[in-house]
Amino acid sequence: MRYIGIDPGLSGGLALINDNGDALTERMPKTERDAIDLLAKWFWSGGTFAVIEHVWSVPGQGGGFAFGQNVGTLRTALTAARIPFDAVIPRRWQAALGIAYATGATDTEKKNITKRRAQQLFPALTVTHAIADALLIAEYCRRSRRGLLSEVGRKRRSQ
Prior knowledge:
Blueprint: E1 2-7, E2 13-18, E3 23-27, H1 32-42, E4 48-53, H2 64-80, E5 85-88, H3 90-96, H4 107-121, H5 129-145, H6 151-158
Parallel strand pairs: 1-4, 4-5
Antiparallel strand pairs: 1-2, 2-3
Helix pairs in contact: 1-2, 3-6, 4-5
């Protein structure tokens, strides 16, 4: 089985892992065609499942239109590649993987925490901020599909 994690932000990325935890990563594709080609390449008839982070834009922060378009492109690319997927809110996958942020943590502090956690789980890879969340979302996908989520993740999921 193969598991795909997608951080749909414009500076995000995609990650593919297998049952053994071997991983491939890519920065966010620049065009719709690139996204479709990448996901079609990652499709495996032996079983592929994806999780895309369910996110939303915040009024007043700007960039919401481009961000929403990116999410739509990725969802369409998954469908075109015939890859089934779920959308999961950040809090769910973060809790399931033991990621917690201090109250008032900055975006940079949060990114450093997720990068550190991704590096712990994938020590053979050079983890960057662009692919850290995608790797963690792919690991969440692998664990959830295999029934390996922690108690925290199961509690969170049922809420």
